[in-house]
Amino acid sequence: MSPRRTPSGGRIDRLRTIRFTFDGTAYTGHQGDTLASALLANGVSLFARSFKYHRPRGVLTAGIDEPNALVTVLRGEVREPNLPATMVEIYDGLVAVSQNRFPSLAYDVSAINQLGGRFLSAGFYYKTFMGPVVGPLKGTRFWMMCEHVIRRAAGLGRAGREPDTARYEKMNAFCDVLVVGSGPAGLAAAREAVASGRRVILAELDALFGGSTNWSGEAIDGEPASAWAGDIIGELKGHKNVRLLKRTTVWGYYDGNTVAALERVSDHKASAAKGAPRHRNWTIRAGKIVLATGAFERPLVFPGNDRPGVMMASAAQRYANQYGVLPGDKIAVFANNDSAYRTAAALNKAGATIAAIVDVRPDISEDCRTLARQCGAELLVGHAVVGTEGGKKLTGIKIAPFTAAAGALPGGGRNIEADCLLMSGGWSPTIHLASQAGARPVWDADLQAFLPPEAGKGWVGAGAFNGVFSTAEAIAEGFAAGRVAADLPAIEIGTLPQIEPAALDPRPAPVFEIRAKGKSFVDFQHDVTSDDVRLAHLEGFVSVEHLKRYTTLGMATDQGKGSNVPGLAIMAEAVGKPIPEVGTTRFRPPFAPVSVGALAGERYGDLKPERLTPMHDWHLENDATMYSAGLWFRPMIYGDPGETVEQAYVREAGTTRETAGIVDVSTLGKIAVQGPDAAEFLDRVYTNIFSTLPVGKARYGLMLREDGIAFDDGTTWRLGVNDFLMTTTTANAGKVMQHLEYFLDVVWPDLKVHLTSVTDQWAGAAIGGPKAREILASCVTGTKVDNEALPFMGIVHGEIAGAPVMICRLSFSGEMAFEVYSGAGHGIHVWEALIEAGKPQGMVPYGLEALGTMRIEKGHVTGAEIDGRTTARDLHLGWMLSKKKPFIGSAMMDREGLIASDRLELVGLISLDNRPLSGGAHIVMEADPENPHGSLGHITAACFSPALGKYIALALVSGGKALHGKRAQVSDPLRNRFGPVEIVSNHFFDPEGKRMHG
Amino acid sequence: MVEQLSPLGQAFRPGSHGNFANGTGVTLSEIAPGSIVQVAAWPGEQKKVMTALATVTGLKLADGAGTGAVSERHAVFGFAPGKFLVTDTSEGLAAALSAKIGIDIGTVTDLSHGRTAIRIDGPKAEWVLGKLFAIDFEPASFPVGSGIATAHHDIFAQIQRSGAERFDLYVFRSFARSFWKMLCHAADEVGYEVA
Q1: Predicted confidence band at A304 (pLDDT cuts at 50, 70, 90)?
Q2: Which whole number is the average pLDDT over A569-592?
Q3: Has domain A669-760 been given CATH number 3.30.70.1400?
Q4: Which of the residues A441, A482, A551, A660 could staple to A193 if both were Cys, CB 3.0 to 4.6 A apart?
Q5: Domain A166-296+428-507 has CATH 3.30.70.1230
Q6: Is the Cβ of B97 closer than 8 Å to some Cβ of chain A?
Q7: d(CA B76, nearest CA chain A) in Å
Q8: What per-residue confidence (pLDDT) applies to A147?
Q9: Do residue A277 and residue B21 have CB atoms under 8 angstroms apart?
Q10: ipTM greater than 0.95, yes or no?
């Protein structure tokens, strides 16, 4: 038997022993234990070192509000830091370690920080690291020097560097009613909503449904509260219209009654089930939400309130009743309210000695006196704890008479021996989600707590969330809330369940702090003391929002669940204003920390899906080096063994110009433009005319943006009178579709035109070169492909190897070329037939590098030149701007700035030093490597031209055509490339287009 | 006629995969209908288009957004105002529909090669799809026959419930392999058969 495990009782499975380690020491616990309860059962009291002062810390709470006992859980090489030991369920093989200590938890050298406490007060960084105004450490340099030392000394756990191999998942769910919290109120609400037939989700952040019924020790209608809860859970499980989610923290409340909830699917297991995620992040869209999230007990602020062995009263009750663990043998209780008396009774019943009950109130109820008497405790009303004793473990407390009304310590006092001190400073309803939903909390002077305002549009509250602390009333409220949420008429609950023992008075005395000598902690996790709060006030901070940022109160991972109200109360007292006038901080998501993995879901590693052309596998099988173009994957080169990229593309482009080459153009955007107004629509969106295009012909088109800047280009094929196939650049396909849809939907809704993306309907192979027609003719049936049947920009239909194809004679390479379109499902079939037909001629497949090379040689533009800044005229496409009709952009394209003579214009460049040119390099008249200046423009694309045998480039240069024949310099200081170039026409190769026209 | 090649390639791995602790959660398959066709009506002409669809497919649609119907051979559902996705186990549907739907009432677009049809069938189908789409898949909201257009991140998808536990998903062909992999990954947890 562990030293502090009670002989019986609790909701743990005592027949299941679980083995785990903490800081290398082996321990055992039981199924149902948390790491905190199991370590407490083993007599461990020291759990952690504090953030700033490295003070020894024990475990303060039993739940998600734990500020002290943060640990790191190791799974192989993967570290998960900053987990509250109160939320870590133990499993066989669990390895947990303490954090923020060196060399060990028991002997931590940084504990010396405690001595320098007055220098480490609020605003430490702001005051200390201003930096000298002169000297080598001027400005922020001193801070930069100190930063890494401070970061090592202060802080939380260390994140791992190994990749997290766990799976994380997202899940969407819809329901009529979401009930958050499964305590008495939540269960009553869920039962009512489920019975009405509504779709219900019940979310509970703990491993057990039932909330306080697991540890309250109450009886409901004569049976243990946990059995009552178990009955309801059993009943709910019998219904199909409810989903029960345990270990699920609802952490965010967003617009439209959308909430985010984190389900810890596998954290409580040694390993996740096959295929199961570690965490699942739920997005729940709920008709109505019942907030039955309970309340957190507040600490009292007094010197030494952070010593290991000081614990929240309700937490101790939970350890005793739910886990069968006594947090101490000789227990003292310090309270400002009645609830702690019930705790004392519960612990006494579980076997502990209650040494004393210290109550700040001068007078207490007879019920409390009876409880104190029954547990044999010395009752000290009108007293306060003014200090604690012991090192890393509590050995005793100091008490003194206390006048609650004045908050004064008139003097006197004595010591009481105790190994555990339970404190209760009243209760703060867990109103975080309502606050996130936009509700402003309302201060309740009786309960000394912020309550939610009246129910919002999307939610209704119940139980302790509403400041209703008796179980009977919570059940009644839950019943009513369930009916409201299920849209049922309000009715009386009938007979209220009988709760034993009867509820005590929930109103605490308005005492938050005992001002005595010593560090009194308000925010345990961030080591913020009451003196820090007062210091902030003295230094002029009046707003609670500023207080928060200056002291970091409430900004730790527990987000001030226990510290916000005491901190506010101390600030209010310092300012001399009532608490509600000082304000409250509003809560933001997340309610509790959320793993980044869960936010990312499965979208790690490959953030984007892959888009593959029908010929993708063929490219891979034929040694293509692929690269991504947006989401698409396209062949860069089909390299031979030992070839460089340049050698490969020069060979591919050279062979194409010599005989023939074939390239996969399936990625081009393709939009079906259909309808009686399709031609009219195209006339409006293109700068040139399409209504005159005969069926069976294609035309090159240019689109402008509304502001007159060039937008996209491509060919559009007229397949029928009312049926066009528009092609766009690969990169702009989506943008063009949006652009066109916008104009159809918003500007010209009267036009009868339908647009459909058919990019994926077609596989496209462009075959070009002097032998292209011969190769095509050898494999196509059902049509001729000679000049007469298939003139330039003509379209024919036929078959290749039995598959229907549509062939358009157009050219991007400048060669006699054809684009062969087949159904995408026939893509490889047709491609392979073309490859086979090309073999006798030595045709090669070529990739994007060769494609780019040939287009540079021809001076054709792509996205590198249509870059969102250039006009049609800048690119020498002014001839495409129809004067016979208006089109998108025509009204704006002649603006002064767009026709200025000094605009950057497209030119060609030839490297005169026979060295490569690079995109992005500047063009200047005189190169000055020391002081680069005088840019005339920049290179947009560059290659080695096999046709010219030179390094060439396209560039946008001020002056443009006027500079043809002039010598200039390339200036590329980033890559240290300087050298002479000649500015020439962008049409390097076959400017008359003889090869293309045949 | 040349058969269409599946875009799923090596990613299509027939057999059992994932966690079968609770039986087979879903069966995943590619249904490869002979025809997938989009039909779009001009404003005000929707009824005529629906009549034409009924004539060709034998499936009558109820009024309202996202309604649809399925038969052994055909499936039809509305995915946007006046727009329908129609399938046929045989080829030639686009021509048959074009014969009934003149340019005066709407347009017919053949997408037989452009969309890939993936079927998910089994008791965990709603659960698996819930991981990928923010859609309420429960039968009360999404009855048999009904359809919807939605997206999984970058991947546009049209989904029809074709049975009590069965959904047919139509995705762009170029995305199909990536989507299939994601779907298999999502189904790992519940155990899936690829057939």
Answers
A1: very high
A2: 89
A3: yes
A4: A482
A5: no
A6: no
A7: 18
A8: 74
A9: no
A10: yes
